[in-house]
Amino acid sequence: MQSDRSNGWEAVAHQFIAQRSSIGAATVQTWCQMLPAGASVLDIGCGTGVPISEALINKGCVVYGVDASPSLVAEFNRQFPQAQTACEPVEESQFFGRKYDGIVAIGLLFLLHPDVQQALIQRVSTALKPGGRFLFSAPIQKAAWADLTTGRQSVSLGDEAYRQALADAGLKVIGEYFDEGENHYYDSINS
């Protein structure tokens, strides 16, 4: 039997589609104002594209989305046919062979194994143009918990480890945000 490449998200895709909120959209809209006009942005773990890719598209960004859930990618394509998508795990995505002005990972990183989180940060740095920005959400506290939607383990590496992983990848933290749901975001630049 083939393993679930979506880490549990395909099994809950219809529930996720029905309950997605607009939390985070305003933060992403503020962030993308720092990008050049018509910026290319990769949304890793894009899900349905709502609200993150939607906010980017509404601000004039050219969006690429990657997610391993076929149902979520199909919904993304239905809503945003102008965007390019790939249905594959972010750890293996061919989209990292391109260069982007920005990359976002909202609600994704802490869902991955700690080693995969660190490797993904390295992949992000190689896919950013010089001066490109990486925005991701993760708790400041080092913690582990069961994800409310999938029931699978989530792990925050904690502030010190995230900052070190970013620095090791050549990325410098230049800002932090909290959204209306009290989610914490790191904004870093490829220096």
Describe the overall structure.
The protein has 191 residues and is an alpha/beta fold. It has one domain (23-190): Rossmann fold. It contains six helices and nine strands; from the N terminus they run H-H-E-H-E-H-E-E-H-E-E-E-H-E-E. The chain has helices at residues 13-19, 25-32, 52-58, 70-79, 114-127, 159-168, and strands spanning 40-44, 62-67, 84-87, 100-105, 128-137, 143-146, 153-156, 171-178, 184-190. Strands 3-2-1-4-5-9-8 form a seven-stranded mixed sheet, with helices on both faces. The chain has a two-stranded antiparallel sheet with strand order 6-7. Helix 2 (25-32) runs parallel beside helix 3 and helix 5 (114-127) runs parallel beside helix 6 (159-168). The relative contact order is 0.17. The mean pLDDT is 92.
Pick out its properties.
191 residues; alpha/beta; Rossmann fold; seven-stranded mixed beta sheet; two-stranded antiparallel sheet; 6 helices; 9 strands; 29% helix
